[in-house]
Write a structure and sequence with these properties.
The complex is a heterodimer. Chain A has no helices and eleven strands. By secondary structure, chain A is mostly beta strands. In chain A, strands 2, 4, 5, 6, 9, 10 and 11 form a seven-stranded mixed β-sheet that branches. A four-stranded antiparallel β-sheet of chain A has the order 1-3-8-7, with no helix packed on it. Chain B is mainly beta. The model of chain B has no long low-confidence stretch (mean pLDDT 92). The chains are: A mainly beta, B mainly beta. The interface between A and B is medium-sized, with 26 and 22 residues.
């Protein structure tokens, strides 16, 4: 069966510090991968998606970047965090089928102080 | 672009009450529709889905029917439990870019009291 992992589960970082969040998927090959952010009391905003190794598409301009160094690894990064980067970050995977659902990881709670 | 509109929350109910959470959508083409649930501090879990008009998705006592004529996908449950307290997200699949993306509503918080 497929599983998706995210770490760390929680993170508190000062403004201006770097960020690296990791997501890995097991039990499937060549998944589509997604990073979402959920701000407090709000819905989900798609940040990045990837259809393959090294292929990243950004949905919104921002202070963050993403990379996919391996088929089942997706990394969200920042060189200098802003207060507005605080939120709950969710990684998800899906398959290249027109109506298939996405499967979400447990999330990382990021607080920037 | 495609969009999903959900009713504002929180929805507060007593145990065993009937639940309806409204969801309407705007889309070009024929999207698939989903309901996801998020329990406190956790990621999202797929609750149910429907892939074409008049399909009924169901799971754990929840159900929703894909109504193309009213562009709706309302979530219902006949008798809620305290353990159903969570945030519920309606979503549609968007294939306009040739790549499947999910468009989410803002979520509706459900609070069930004993």
């Amino acid at each position: 069966s497929q599983t998706i992992h995210q770490w760390p589960a929680t993170l508190v970082q000062p403004v201006g510090s770097p960020l690296s969040l990791e997501c890995t998927v097991e039990g499937t090959s060549n998944p589509n991968l997604y990073w979402y952010r959920q701000a407090a009391g709000r819905g989900l905003q798609l940040l990045f998606y990837s259809v393959g190794i090294g292929q990243i598409s950004s949905e919104v301009p921002q202070n963050l970047s993403a990379s996919r160094p391996q088929d089942r690894q997706f990394i969200l990064s920042s060189k200098k965090l802003l207060l507005s980067d605080s939120g709950f970050y969710l990684c998800a995977w899906g398959l290249e089928i027109s109506y298939n659902e996405q499967f979400f990881g447990p999330g990382t709670r990021l607080t920037v102080l | 672009g495609d969009s999903v509109t959900q009713m504002e929350g929180p929805v507060t109910l007593s145990e065993e009450a009937f639940l309806t959470i409204n969801c309407t959508y705007t889309a070009t083409g024929y999207p698939s529709l989903f309901w996801y649930v998020q329990y406190p501090g956790e990621g999202l879990q797929l609750l149910l889905k429907a892939t074409k008009a008049d399909d009924k998705g169901s799971n754990k006592g929840f159900e929703a029917t894909y109504r193309k004529e009213t562009t709706s996908f309302h979530l219902e449950k006949g008798s809620v439990q305290v353990s159903d307290s969570a945030v519920y997200f309606c979503a549609l699949s968007d294939m306009n870019t040739g790549f499947q993306k999910l468009v989410f509503g803002t979520g509706t918080r459900l609070l069930v009291s004993p």
